[in-house]
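Q: NAD-dependent protein deacylase, please. Structure only.
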Amino acid sequence: MKNIVVLTGAGMSAESGIATFRDSGGLWAQHRVEDVATPEGFQRNPQLVLDFYNKRRRESLLAKPNNGHIGLVEMQHEYNVQIITQNVDNLHEKAGSSTVIHLHGELMKARSSINPDKVYPLDPLNPDINVDDKCEDGSPLRPYIVWFGEAVPLMAEAEEIVRRADALVVIGTSLNVYPAAGLINYVYAGTPIYVIDPNEVSVSRGKVHFIRKGASEGVAELKGLLKEQFEHNKNKQ
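A: Structure for NAD-dependent protein deacylase:
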């Protein structure tokens, strides 16, 4: 089976009602990054940070996968689909995707403030993290989110997956957030790249097919394009 690697961003979940960060009126227009998405912000005002992510978590629990998520699951019947997501919601898993790497963490988990390897699932029926909640090591519990200024621990694994791609699909990300945006540079020359986004996305690579649509419509179109691509390659051989 061909390896289809899919890199998804906020636009993937937008159709499910998950608020984006960078768009006009997005979360960063309402909150300072320094206040809610840095270790320093958590030290200054843990209650503010926990309230911010508790709200995100409750929104995520109510959200349902859209047809884009479901379309990627359907592709698993024909391809080895591996998803690398910048999103912290669990909509890919809700839809049924079998391989998902969360580069920036997961809303439905908490971790120790001093040891990033101590990670705990949160109860969907009682998902809030409270300011007095402690890890077993005695440190305050914090969201399992990779904040600005912190290392992205799964980058090396993601880079290796991209190197093995027979096609790379980019959905709903502006490719402006590093190091995740740099994954596109690990695709071998000649590997087809498909970018699904209604907005213009700048890609400094040669063989790129742009699908100027939202996630659901874009994934539906992608299925036919992948069949054409691989049939064309087979006939050339």
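A: Brief note, in case it's useful. Strands lie at 3-8, 80-85, 100-102, 105-112, 119-121, 141-145, 167-171, 193-196, 208-211.
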